[in-house]
């Protein structure tokens, strides 16, 4: 093989991999993760009052058109073992606005607040949650962020191979 052609092909592969990662990072943003309390949250298959939650601000920077993004949360104990996986944010109420759910269509460059109600399993004193990883993306592109900020390497989650983990 021609050495110049080999170098050119290698550079093209590297550039396409970097571009794919940059696309996920720029397409999806997790702007803030913080614990809180919500007055009414749908968690564990029922509406509950004064529920501890993880609040997350999300934003997409591109028009996903008919593609529905996913938002998941993974709760871990002090030993970094998975306790609970939430496949979608919880419904919650806001005074004067009613029930809030993540919409099917996310407008580009608009910030959306979602909440994950913390289940009794994650609040159990013997295996209380210590870390949460939130994953936001579509298809095979995603970003992830961890709260509180620590090295995400030892944590396992389904989208780890495709997610770009936001470092603090």
Write the layout of secondary structure elements.
Layout: H1 3-27, E1 28-43, E2 46-60, E3 70-76, E4 82-86, E5 92-94, E6 98-100, E7 111-117, H2 120-123, E8 131-138, E9 141-147, E10 163-166
Parallel strand pairs: 9-10
Antiparallel strand pairs: 1-2, 2-7, 3-4, 3-8, 5-6, 8-9
Describe the 3D structure.
The protein has one domain (about 5-165). The chain is globular, with a radius of gyration of 18 Å. The longest helix is centred in the first third of the chain and has 25 residues, at about 5-25. The protein has two helices and ten strands; from the N terminus they run αβββββββαβββ. The protein has about 170 residues and is an alpha+beta fold. Mean pLDDT is about 85; it is low at about 5-25. Strand 3 (about 70-75) and strand 4 form a beta hairpin. It has helices at about 5-25, 120-125, and strands at about 30-45, 45-60, 70-75, 80-85, 90-95, 100, 110-115, 130-140, 140-145, 165.
In short:
The chain has 168 residues and is of the alpha+beta class.
Tell me the fraction of residues in β-strands, as a range: 35-45%
Number of helices: 2
- Helical residue percent band: 10-25%
Shape field: globular
Unreliable spans: 5-24
Rg calc: 18 Å
Mean pLDDT over all positions: 85
Structural class: alpha+beta
Distance between the first and last residues' Cα: 44 Å
The tally of beta strands, per DSSP, is: 10
Order of helices and strands: HEEEEEEEHEEE
